[in-house]
Amino acid sequence: MDLTLYLQFFLGLVAIVNPIGLLPVFVTLTSHQSEVERRRTAAIANFAVVVILLVTLIAGQLILDMFSISLSAFRVAGGTLIVFIAMSMLQGKLGEVKHNKAEDREAAAMESVAVVPLALPLMAGPGAISSVIVYAAEYNSWVNILGMAAAVLVFGLMSWAIFRMASVIFKVLGQTGINIITRIMGLLMLSIGIEVISAGIKGLFPGV
């Protein structure tokens, strides 16, 4: 078991999903809910995220094979998407790559926001899914898959705890503090995206 790999995978999820950066959105989407309903929404959203990422982790290689996509090509595509989201985060924004105004309006009118748009596409968005598929395809032994699945479960518990304390954290950090954390996560995410693109280019053009 490569603990370094699982730690890298876990930290990548933390940077890409950025649950602390999503706190203002979570508070806004659940503003009409009671404290009990808000906690239930947080639990359902994070459970849905774990399920989505686990399914992606297990079926990642199958998805690539189904569409005859090489891992190198997917690395370039996924890495590019991660870079776009990271650039948006560096500006202190979630970015239209994760959600747009039409989705915001739809969410405001919805009774439950736990699965859509909170879990998908805000948390388990294209960036997170792309990252999981890349890791699953590259480190596809059952030992590594189980290790990364454990990392997903730990991430889900951590994210749930953060959302459960959303009101307190939001009051302590404020919008400025959350923006600072979002920019730091964006910088880490940008580095991850560049590394993924670099590995993809080397795979497509071995002579480079």
From TrEMBL:
Coiled coil: none
The keyword Iron-sulfur appears for this protein: no
Segments traversing the membrane: 6-29, 41-63, 69-92, 113-136, 142-163, 184-205
GO cellular component: plasma membrane
Main localization, broad class: membrane
Keywords noted in UniProt: Cell membrane, Membrane, Transmembrane, Transmembrane helix
Superkingdom per UniProt: Bacteria
Localisation: Cell membrane
Bilayer disposition of the protein: Multi-pass membrane protein
Family statement drawn from the similarity comment of this UniProt entry: Belongs to the UPF0056 (MarC) family.
Protein name stated in the entry: UPF0056 membrane protein
Organism encoding this protein: Ferrimonas marina
